[in-house]
Amino acid sequence: MMKTLLSLLKVFTLMSIVLLFSKCTNDYHVSVDSPVKENIPQIDASGYLTQVNEVIHLRSVNDQLKSVSTLNLTLVHKADVSAPEGDLPLSASCLYIKDDVAVVGYNVQGNEYGGAFQIIKFKEETEQVETVVSNLPVDVNDILLKDNIVYMACSDPKTGAALYTYNLTTSEFTRAFILSKLLEGQTVASANGLVLSDSEAMMSAGNTNGGLFWVSEGTEGFSGLNYYGATSASSIAMSPDGNHLPCWSVVTKATKLVLF
Questions:
Q1: For 60-78, what is each residue's pLDDT tens digit?
Q2: Alpha-carbon distance 105 to 44, whole Å?
Q3: pTM higher than the cut 0.70
Q4: Long-range Cβ contact pairs of 116-120 (< 8 A, separation 24 or more)
Q5: Which of 25, 48, 187, 196 is deepest in the core (most CB within 10 A)?
Q6: What Å distances lie between residue 200 and 103, 174, 214, CA to CA?
Q7: Which residue has the higher pLDDT, 13 or 92?
């Protein structure tokens, strides 16, 4: 009897989520957010990377027998990369890799704000830091690179969660969209996940007024499309076929995977 009740409860919860998701698509739309731009120049990229090229052998531990066996997986510690210098110490917060390029985002731990990013190029038998942008006024929590534009899910001390972009050609740093616009001004504290699909972006946000936020890029900037409320949506990813959006949602002490 108890299992039946739990099954019915799960079905009801799932139906409620689907209905809410459908409702959001129709009820939320925000006009283009006026972008705020400033020029932040790139800095000297030399001296950040130290080659290591050390093989790391992984081992698995059998909990029952306490025995150790070697896995058929080998990691290579290619290099050490130093964080950019800023007004406050920075910690690496996110990583994006595509083809032979890696982009590393940084933020400041604690109650202070600040960010940076580096672009690392993988070359034959070596790696090289090619671009460094530091002293950003926001925490960078997730990062992507597309068509020479760096897209960032950020925490802004002035506006809360926001989408920022950086043009690698012009060095223009732009606040593209404030997620609170989709909640009629209610503050969304922190954006922590980001995926792109054509001209649209989806962002996840946690803690205060958390959830998933859809925005679309047009000729005049980004506009809000819709919003799906979820308690502390902590990260988001796009499936290889581009048709599914797995999202980790943390509710109190439980973690669940939500698929769209």
A1: 666 554 555 556 677 888 8
A2: 17
A3: yes
A4: 116/83, 116/84, 116/86, 116/90, 116/140, 117/143, 117/150, 117/152, 117/166, 118/45, 118/48, 118/81, 118/84, 119/145, 119/150, 119/168, 120/49, 120/81
A5: 48
A6: 20, 17, 7
A7: 92
